[in-house]
Structures are given as C-alpha cells and as structure tokens.
C-alpha cells in the first residue's frame, strides 16, 4: 500500500515483522470485504443499478489495492516498481470513486438532475485518468537507482523531494476528496432533513413514522466522510512527522498508520456495500435453502421492510425521469 512504503525507515527487524503481519491481516480483511461486494454485483442482477455500479467500482479498486498490498516484495526490480505504483494507483482510485458517489447524490437530491447516468464516461475518465496522472507524477521524486527490500514491501528510495511529491500526489487529493465529500453530504443531509420536517409539519401523525427510516439513512450518510478520515489520519500525521524528522520513526504511529490504511477497503465495503438491497438479495437466495440451513445464518440479513430502500445504493434515479 502506498502508505506502507514510507513507514519502515530505521525500524528494527522485529518491528518491521509486526508491521508486515498487521498489513497482511488488515489488507486480507479488506480484500475479502471488497471482493464480497464485487461478487454480489456480478451475481445479483437486481443490484446492477447505476448507483450500485459506482459502489462496484469502488469495491473493485479497494480489492486490487488490498491484493497488491498483500503479495509482498517481488525479487525483480520491474515487478517491484509494478507493485509500488499499482497500489498507489488503486488507492487513489478508491477515494476518487467515493467523490463520484457523493456527486451523484448531490446532483440527484439537491440539484434535482436526472442525467447522472449519462456522466458515467466522465466519471471513468476522471477517476482512472487522475489516478494515472498522480501515479506517473509520483515517480518523479523516486530514486530508482536504489531498490531494496524492507520487510515484505517493495521500497523505492526517496529523498526529501520524493516525500513532497508523494504528499502532493496522494495526500493532497485524498484530503481534497474528504473535504468535497464532507461538504456534499452536509448539503444533501440538510436538504432532506428540511424536506422531512416540512412533510411532517403538513401531514398527519402517520407520516411521521414513515420519515424515521429516512432520517436513519441520512445519519448513516453523515459517517461516510469519516471513513477516509479514519483510514488516513494517522498516515497523514506520520508523513508529516517523517518529513520533519526523517531519522526518527514512531512505532505506535506506524502501527496505526499501516493498520487503519489497510482496513479502508473493509470500511468501504461495510458502509457503502452492505445496505438493505444487498441484504435483501442475499436473504432471497437463502430463503431457497432448507429451514435447517437457514437458521444458521444471522437474522440481521433479513430486510426490515421496504422503507430501508432509502439507503444510498437503492437510490432509484431512473424513477425520477
């Protein structure tokens, strides 16, 4: 993973081994979680709506980012470069896909536009194009004449210029995405809360219970920007500290850095992917199994009613046309 390459420095062999284990374990969880969302999209036709297609590409990016973070340090230089830059590419693509999801919600709910599906080619150009540009620019600051193994990661030696370039090509767009998502979801939640209050004020008491699931979904949307913040806050602090004091590594900060960043895919798969539509699709398949088998599965898989359709992925843009 992009952040792992900058945390090993002058750590001991034991500390590097601990970071290796943390990275492998956390990345494996992210790989399984994001892979599960990808598999659901491919297997369940009812999930192949535009809104969930964006979640699919987010999970796909997380899956590849986690995979290349797990595979370790190849013995040959070319594959070493490929691993380092591939993880950088897919990690950048991951948080850029979250901005397309936020943009889609904002354009549909706040601006009342119904043309978001027509923007899909622009989304791909924006995400994959920006990821390629950031990855290529990142290579400027790397000293490719010095490649060595540190733990299980491929390491391209970088000087002070390389650290600046890494921050510009990774952490700058990352926090730009966090800021954009935060502002966007705030506007979406504020508008829908105002609409809900107006509806309750003009309606009978019966309508108030109908609005509660929507409010619950809105509260969930408010946590989405916190995923990126939680995943990369410690990594950002670690990069700043490493820039100021390059010869001094803080082990506990490196542990939080590697662990939280590697769990980003798992966090995204739970927040964006495991919604009522996915649970309903799974439960419908489980319903075909014998009763003796169904009782072994958690009851939480069963959808709680059609009102849960207010979640992000069940946003039916086509119904507004």
TrEMBL record:
Keywords: G-protein coupled receptor, Membrane, Receptor, Transducer, Transmembrane, Transmembrane helix. PROSITE patterns: G_PROTEIN_RECEP_F2_4. The keyword Transmembrane applies. Coiled coil: none annotated. The chain crosses the membrane at residues 18-42, 54-72, 84-105, 125-141, 168-188, 221-238, 250-274. It is found in: Membrane. Its main location: membrane. Residues 19-276 form the G-protein coupled receptors family 2 profile domain. It is a multi-pass membrane protein. Pfam families: Dicty_CAR (PF05462). One of its GO terms (molecular function) is G protein-coupled receptor activity. One of its GO terms (cellular component) is membrane. This is G-protein coupled receptor 1. It comes from Forsythia ovata.
């Amino acid at each position: 993973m992009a952040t792992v390459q900058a945390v090993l420095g002058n750590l001991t062999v034991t500390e590097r081994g601990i970071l290796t284990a943390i990275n492998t374990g956390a990345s494996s969880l992210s790989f399984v979680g994001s892979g599960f969302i990808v598999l659901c999209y491919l297997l369940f036709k009812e999930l192949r709506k535009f809104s969930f297609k964006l979640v699919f590409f987010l999970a796909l990016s997380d899956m590849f980012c986690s995979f290349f973070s797990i595979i370790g340090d190849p013995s040959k230089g070319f594959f070493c470069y490929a691993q380092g830059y591939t993880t950088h590419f897919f990690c950048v693509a991951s948080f850029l896909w979250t901005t397309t999801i936020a943009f889609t919600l904002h354009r549909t709910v706040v601006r009342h536009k119904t043309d978001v599906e027509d923007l899909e080619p622009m989304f791909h150009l924006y995400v994959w194009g920006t990821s390629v540009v950031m990855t290529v620019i990142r290579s400027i600051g790397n000293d490719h004449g010095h490649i060595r193994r540190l733990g299980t990661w491929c390491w391209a030696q970088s000087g002070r210029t390389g650290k600046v370039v890494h921050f510009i090509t990774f952490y700058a767009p990352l926090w730009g995405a966090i800021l954009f998502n935060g502002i966007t979801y705030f506007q979406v939640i504020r508008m829908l809360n105002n609409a809900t209050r107006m509806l309750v004020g003009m309606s009978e008491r019966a309508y108030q219970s109908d609005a509660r699931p929507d409010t619950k979904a809105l509260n969930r949307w408010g946590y989405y920007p916190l995923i990126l913040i939680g995943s990369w806050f410690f990594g950002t602090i670690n990069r700043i500290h490493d820039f100021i004091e390059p010869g001094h590594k803080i082990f506990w900060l490196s542990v939080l850095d590697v662990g939280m960043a590697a769990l980003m895919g798992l966090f995204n798969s739970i927040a964006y992917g495991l919604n009522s539509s996915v649970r309903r699709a799974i439960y419908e398949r489980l319903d075909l199994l014998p009763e003796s088998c169904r009782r072994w599965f958690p009851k939480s898989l069963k959808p709680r009613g059609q009102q849960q359709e207010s979640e992000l992925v069940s946003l039916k843009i086509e119904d507004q046309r």
